Structures are given as C-alpha cells and as structure tokens.
Inverse folding.
C-alpha cells in the first residue's frame, strides 16, 4: 500500500523526466529565447512560444474576469441565502457542470455558443468597447473571446465549490458577531464571511486559473488556432495546450515535435506551481480537511 | 442611558420545539438582571429573542411582544436597528481575526457610515476605556489583530466593540464561561461599572456570579420563567419550591 | 463619562445600506441563474440534437463513408471500452491501495500529507500533458500509436481521483467500528479489510465509477496515444478509436451527418457521467455508510 502511495511521486517524476528528455533538441537549439520568440514557423524550423504563452494568459484572464464574480455570487447564494432544499439540488448541478467532458463543452461551444456570441453578444461589445481596440472586426465568432467564455463556464464550478467550502469553514460565531452589531445580511456576509475566507477564496481562484491554463479540447475547438498576437479579443489565437492538441499529430520533424513537447513541459511546470500555491492557500483555511477534488 | 425592557407573553419555537412558554417580565433600566437555570432551560433563547438574533435560525418562530424603551422591537423597527440598539456579547469571545484591535472596535461605527477619523479615534478610545482594556492595548491598537489577545482580553474587546455603537441595552450570554477566574473577575467588575450607563441582561450558569453582579434574577426551567425577583430574595427566600431546589443544588 | 453624541446614522447611510443589501441578494441570485443557464442549455441541446440519432445502428455500425447516411460509432464504443479497461486495471487497484494507506496507515504522518498533496497537484496537471508524457514513454520508443499507450495515460489520471475518494470514504466510517474490531483482538490489516473497507465499499466503488466516468470523457491524452481508428479493433498494440476522440473529429468536420453522431456520442458520455455523479452523491449524502454502521 505504501508502494502505491509512493507511486504517485514516481508518476510525477516520470512525467517530468520524459518531458525533459524529449524536449532536449528544442531546449538546446533555442534556450531561453524559446519563450520570448514570437515566430512559429515549422517550414523554416524556427520556433518561439510567445504567441501561445500570450494566448494562454489572456484567455485565462478573460475566463477569470467572467467566472470569479459569478462564482463568488453563487457561493454566497448557496451558503448564506439558499433554502436548504434547493441547496442540495443546486450543488448537484454545479458538480455536474464540473464533470462534463471538455470535448462536449467544445461541441456545444462550436454549434451553440459561438453563433450566439457572433450574432448577439460581440456586436454589443464592438459598439460599446470598440474604442479600446479589444473588440474589433473582423469577427468570426471563434477566437480568444469565445475561448475565454467557454473556459469561464468550465472553471466556474471549481471556483464556486471551493469558495463554498472555505465560506462554510468560517465559524458561525463570526456571523453572529457582525449581526449583533446591527449589520444587514450583506454586511454580515462581507465582514463576517468573505473577509475571513478571503485567503481561501484567493486559493480557489488560483486553482481555477490552474485549470484554465491547461484546459485543452474546448479551447482548441473554438480559439481559431492562429500563432499570432492580436490586440482584439475577437481575433483567432492559440494557447499552449491548444497548439499541442492541434499540431502534435502532424509534427513529423524532430525539432518541431521537440518544441511542442517543450511547451508541454512549460505547461506542466506552471500548472504544478499554480496548483501547489492554490492548495496551500485552501488548506491554510480549511486546515487540511480532505478537499473535494473538483 | 439604559432603557427598560418589557416582555409580554413571549413564546418561541425551534421547529416543533416549544422552547419558551408565555414569558412575561419587566427588566428595569440601568440595572444588571441575571437569568439562571439548568442548560437547555431557554435562558439563552430568551436573550436572543431580545435582539432578534434567534431570527438567524430559519426554523425559529416567535410570538408575543418585547418593548425596549417603550418601542416594540418586533413591529416598530427593523432587526438591523434593534441589534444596533441592543448590544450582545457571546459565550466565546469572537473578535474579527482579520481586523486590528482598532478596526474591531470601529467596525460597528463604520457600518453606520462614520468615516471621520477624529470621531472614530474618540469613540474607540472611550469604548476601550469603558471595557477596561485601553491601558493594555493602547500602544498596539493598529498593529495587533483582535485574535492575538488573550481570551479575557478578547472578551473585553468584544464588549468594547458592542459599546462603540452606543447601545441602550447590553445582553451577555454566559460572557465568562470560557474564561479563567482572573479574567472572569475583571468582567464582573466591568458589569458593575457598565450598569451605570446601560441596562444589562446576563445569562449565567454560575449562581455565585448572578448573586455578585445582579440586582434582579430570573429563574428559567423547561422554557418557563419560574420566578423573577430581587437577587437577594431569590437566593435567600425563594417563593417557588423549584427555585429553591435549584439554588441549593438539589438538581440541575 | 456620559456619551457625548447619540449615535445617529444619516438617512442617506440607511438608504445606502438597504440598497446594497438588496443589490447583493439580487446579484447572488442573478449569478446563480446565469451559471445554471449554460448547464440547462447544454443538456437541452444534447437531448434535442443527440437523442434522435441514438438507435441500434449507433451502437453496432462503424462510421459510414462520407456522403452516405447511417453508420454509427461501434468502433469508438468498443475502443473506449478497451481503453477504459486498461485504465481501470491500472488506476483502480493502485488508487484504492494509495487511498487505504492515506486513511488507515499513514494518517497524520508527514509522508501521507505529502502524498495527499502530490495527488491533488497531479490531479491539476493538464490532461494534454499526460498525453505527451504517455507519447514520450510508450509511443515514441515503440514507434506506433497504441491502445496500450492511451490506456496508460488514462490510468495515470485515475489514480489521484480514486485515491482521494477512497480516503474520503474510509474516513467516513465511524471510529467506533474500527475500535470495535480492534477490541476483539483482530489484527489491524484484517479489521481494515473485513470491517472498514467493507463498510466503505459502496462509497469506494462509486468513487471509482466517478473517476471512470471522468476519464471516459477525456480526449486530450488520447490524441497522440490511442490516435483513432475507423474500424473496430481490440488489439492493444494498434491505434484504437475512442468516443471523445471521434466526437472531436466529427465536431470539426463539415458534414451534418457527422455532427449528428457527435451529439449522440456526447449524450452517451453525459448519461454515463450524470449517473455516476448522482450515485456518488446518493452514497455520501443519504448516509448509506451511516446505515451500515
């Protein structure tokens, strides 16, 4: 049994060594410049990962910007306002959202979400925020913004269920203390609950970020796969995960393949750091109670 | 100044549990009134009905009326306003751990829209002085968190926090039961000084404590108010047999 | 030391507090509705667009050539079954054993804390990274895509989930039950197997089902391990099709007929997932474990 437990370390170590050995060509050839170069050209064998790093960060930030307020809102509703009967059902629903496969989200996004965004949502943003340069035509529906929206839907349940967990861990006496001072319900939630749970909430947001950074299929299906950096969120782009998904199978050349594996290695390291950070923060609040692996 | 409390035919239920039955009593202003009785007798529920804290439990229900300073707290004003006017100190000290000592005391004022630094400084100092904590914490008001104090200090901080919003009544639900004897003595001293300005209702399971601090004492048993009289009368010559049994330690 | 000024909040302040309080409630309810909307939409679309294509052919026929009607996903269903079989054979025993270690033997030790932590972190590693690792580990040296490589990638992903749910379920077994067994002079390992694990068994099984359902929907780790195969295959050293892989390919294809099959395949996956999530919930919340005590 202890061997099986330790095998978890072995797996992590194995993944790391395999990724390092198979990205050696690229590591040697490009060095650190790999992460600042923006040319991605399989024909001339020049590879720089900057467009994908940019795409990953921006799509994740769009997702967080949309998901965090909603997730906290849901958590507040479920822990502080919701009648008990409804609570069970709603938390079941959020669990389901977390369990839907990425590829199904992608399918739905292609045929339902993208047309919806293109026809109804994007025009509004172009009109209102076009002056910022973040929303400019041409707009095909697919692109960075669509990826951000589907990512937001996907990471919402993770953030909200962990936020709910840390909010429930705030002792009842704190809520009473605020109420007894003559606070409204919202003031009670703000001062007695959110304020005390804030470290854990930050942890759950970072965990959501970790998920968004590595999310592959749904993003690959709607982001438009273009290794370019554009200011407009409506333009096609690519993320670290999506470029691997879209190009790995056709990468016949060793350098090309190695460059893609190096992107995978970077993604692995970044998500590990992000997850460690997030878990530490959540554990600090819930004191190591077995956290639900969302 | 404190105000009196008149309770008339108060009944309370938790779900199907009839926890308070026809409680009628008059708590005079600027005195300390102690409520005693075995655990589960309804004394805690009773004080929670006085500032509508029981409403935080969705299955709780109350009938009857409670008048504080002549105002019916169940119909004339909102629960928020009731709780602002009737402060409460709980069994376990519950300072806000993420706030400094200063912010803990100022929290109630800030809720009410007070932003002026001079006013806040003044009220914080006055409240901490009233709670006999000022001298111990005045040097690290903004440096230390409320949770870094000792248990007894935390409880006095909670008292200061309640005093800062200028209540007329102070409810104390077993305020010393989680504290050591020295801290308990300090809280009892404090009650003596505070009743000059506030009406105090203190729930306690410690009969000596009731005898020491309160002018009047009420004895609760199984959701009923058995006897309510001057503390002296209750402890020396109770008129009800059940009260006598309880204070002489024959049950409970 | 009389109070100098009676505390009095301005009417403006009172109105502001009333307003923010109600605004907060409206926003909280609003965000809940907004979050549930996509779920309802996804389910409605899946049933609306997928159910009509779920027929006998879907489960028995391989895909029809482009342009022809009919055809099914038999190759993908068989492929998914093979892949999940390999994954479970690997992930379930290792995961359960690790979970038992965490809950029973290593409780409170530094090692178990570290294992638990690593399991959570491993759970957060993107599935595409698992795919590349399995590619580097098996496909590259063998120079061939294979069902085996895909199964290993999925199996690795199952381990942390199974381990953590097993631990959670074992910890739900009341302490008194363990003590009762130990009090009879039964050795630890026997009481573990015959009492604790037996009591927690429904929970452990449903936990495995949940892990199973999760990896059943994984696509990214299979892209360059199992790779896909247009025909029914059960050979472990050959490329193999999988339901999510085929959904991915069909969704991006230009043919309506294939889109229809993609919706139907998704509906099958979702049904599998809903059933396992509901089962886990039933076991943990309805107190099947408590009933057993």
């Amino acid at each position: 049994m202890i061997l099986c437990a330790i095998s978890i370390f072995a797996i992590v170590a194995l993944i790391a060594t395999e990724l390092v050995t198979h990205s050696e060509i690229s590591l040697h050839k490009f060095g650190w410049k790999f992460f600042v170069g923006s040319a991605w050209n399989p024909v001339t064998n020049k590879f720089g990962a900057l467009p994908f790093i940019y795409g990953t960060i921006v799509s994740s930030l769009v997702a967080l910007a949309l998901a965090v307020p909603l997730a906290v809102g849901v958590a507040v509703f479920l822990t502080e306002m919701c009648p008990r009967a409804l609570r069970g059902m709603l938390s079941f629903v959020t669990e389901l959202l977390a369990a839907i496969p990425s590829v199904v989200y992608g399918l739905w996004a292609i045929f339902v979400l993208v047309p919806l965004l293109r026809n109804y949502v994007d025009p509004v943003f172009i009109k209102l925020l076009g002056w910022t340069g973040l929303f400019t035509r041409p707009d095909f529906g697919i692109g960075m913004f669509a990826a951000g929206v589907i990512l937001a839907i996907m990471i919402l349940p993770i953030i909200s269920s962990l936020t709910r967990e840390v909010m429930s861990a705030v002792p009842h006496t704190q809520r009473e203390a605020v109420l007894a001072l003559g606070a409204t319900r919202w003031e009670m939630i703000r001062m007695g609950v959110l304020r005390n749970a804030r470290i854990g909430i930050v942890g759950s947001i970072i965990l959501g970020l970790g998920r968004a950074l590595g999310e592959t299929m749904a993003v690959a299906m709607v982001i438009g796969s273009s290794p370019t950096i554009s200011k407009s969120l409506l333009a096609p782009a690519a993320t670290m995960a999506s470029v691997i998904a879209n190009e790995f199978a056709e990468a016949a050349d060793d350098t090309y393949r190695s460059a893609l594996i190096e992107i995978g290695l970077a993604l692995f390291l970044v998500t590990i750091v992000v997850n460690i950070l997030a878990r530490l923060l959540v554990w600090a609040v819930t004191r190591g109670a077995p956290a639900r692996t969302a | 100044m404190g105000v009196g409390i008149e309770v008339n035919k108060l009944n309370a239920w938790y779900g199907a549990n009839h926890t308070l039955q026809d409680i009628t009593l008059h708590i005079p202003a600027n005195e300390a009134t102690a409520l005693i009785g075995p655990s589960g007798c309804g004394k805690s529920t009773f004080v929670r009905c006085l500032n509508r804290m029981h409403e935080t439990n969705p299955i709780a229900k109350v009938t009857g009326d409670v008048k504080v300073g002549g105002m019916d707290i169940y119909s004339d004003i909102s629960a928020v306003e009731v709780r602002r006017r009737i402060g409460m100190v709980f069994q376990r000290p519950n300072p806000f751990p993420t706030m400094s000592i200063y912010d803990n005391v100022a929290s109630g004022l800030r809720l009410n829209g007070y932003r002026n630094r001079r006013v806040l400084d003044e009220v914080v100092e006055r409240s901490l002085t009233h709670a006999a904590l000022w001298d111990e914490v005045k040097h690290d008001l903004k440096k230390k968190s409320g949770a870094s104090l000792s248990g007894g200090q935390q409880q006095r901080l909670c008292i200061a926090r309640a005093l800062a919003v200028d209540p007329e009544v102070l409810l104390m639900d077993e305020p010393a039961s989680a504290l050591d004897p020295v801290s308990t003595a300090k809280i009892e001293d404090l009650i003596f000084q505070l009743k000059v300005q506030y009406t105090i209702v203190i729930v306690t399971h410690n009969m000596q404590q009731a005898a020491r601090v309160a002018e009047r004492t009420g004895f609760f048993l199984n959701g009923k108010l058995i006897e309510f009289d001057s503390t002296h009368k209750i402890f020396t010559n109770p008129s009800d047999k059940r009260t006598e049994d309880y204070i002489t330690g024959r049950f409970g | 030391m009389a109070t100098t000024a009676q505390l009095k909040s301005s009417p403006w302040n009172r109105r502001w507090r009333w307003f923010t309080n109600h605004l907060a409630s409206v926003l909280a309810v609003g965000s809940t509705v907004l979050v549930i909307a996509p779920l309802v939409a996804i389910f409605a679309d899946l049933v609306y667009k997928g159910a009509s294509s779920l027929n006998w052919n879907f489960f028995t026929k391989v895909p029809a050539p482009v342009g022809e009607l009919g055809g099914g996903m038999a190759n993908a269903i068989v492929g998914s079954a093979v892949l999940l079989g390999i994954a479970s054979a690997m992930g379930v025993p290792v995961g359960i054993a690790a979970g038992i270690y965490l809950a029973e033997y290593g409780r409170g030790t530094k090692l178990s804390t570290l294992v638990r932590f690593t399991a959570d972190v491993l759970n957060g590693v993107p599935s595409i990274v698992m795919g590349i690792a399995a590619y580097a580990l098996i496909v590259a040296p063998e120079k061939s895509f294979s069902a085996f490589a895909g199964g290993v990638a999925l199996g690795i992903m199952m381990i942390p989930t199974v381990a953590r749910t097993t631990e959670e379920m074992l910890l739900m077994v009341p302490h008194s039950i363990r003590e009762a067994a130990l009090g009879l002079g039964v050795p630890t390992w026997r009481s573990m197997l015959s009492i604790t694990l037996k009591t927690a068994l429904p929970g452990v099984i449903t936990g495995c089902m949940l892990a199973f359902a999760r990896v059943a929907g994984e696509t990214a780790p299979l892209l360059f391990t199992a790779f896909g195969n247009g025909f029914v295959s059960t050979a472990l050293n050959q490329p193999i099709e999988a339901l999510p892989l085929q959904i991915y390919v069909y969704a991006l294809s230009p043919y309506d007929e294939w889109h229809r099959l993609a919706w139907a395949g998704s509906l099958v996956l979702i049904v599998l997932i809903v059933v396992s999530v509901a089962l886990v919930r039933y076991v943990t919340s309805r107190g099947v474990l408590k009933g057993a005590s």
